[in-house]
Amino acid sequence: MTKNENESGIEIGLLERRSRFDTLCEILVTIKSNGNELIATHVLYKTNLSWNIMRVCMELLEKKGLLHFVKDDCKITKGHYILTEKGLAVASQYESLKEVLGESD
């Protein structure tokens, strides 16, 4: 058994779930790293979240003033999300913290 495995031999990282904070920040970082605009479906796939969890997180991030939904005239997508200045700052700070703590991907 290595230090990254539990007693069953399963890698510990596979068992860990993201905290609410990490989930919210990962959404921000995902949008930031994709040109600061992304449709909801792409956020969903890139963050590996369920639709309900992602929807609740996006609503919270909007209420906190970290991202904004922009309606599109296109019939295929209803719109896309963009980060506000505050959202960009939070995403950058989160990435910096992960790097300092050795948690970057």
Could you give a quick summary of the protein structure above?
By secondary structure, the chain is mainly alpha-helical. The protein has helices at 12-15, 20-32, 40-47, 51-63, 85-100, and strands at residues 37-38, 67-71, 79-83.
Structure description:
The chain has 105 residues and is mainly alpha-helical. The chain has a single domain, classed as Orthogonal Bundle (Arc Repressor Mutant, subunit A). It is built from five helices and three strands. It has a three-stranded antiparallel sheet. Strand 2 and strand 3 form a beta hairpin. Helix 2 packs across helix 5. The chain is globular, with a radius of gyration of 16 Å. 19% of the residues are buried.
Any chance you could write out the topology, listing elements then pairs?
Layout: H1 12-15, H2 20-32, E1 37-38, H3 40-47, H4 51-63, E2 67-71, E3 79-83, H5 85-100
Antiparallel strand pairs: 1-3, 2-3
Helix pairs in contact: 2-5
SSE string: HHEHHEEH
CATH superfamily: Winged helix-like DNA-binding domain superfamily/Winged helix DNA-binding domain
Low-confidence stretches: 8-15
- How is the largest sheet built, in terms of strand order? 1-3-2
Count, helices: 5
CATH fold-level assignment: Arc Repressor Mutant, subunit A
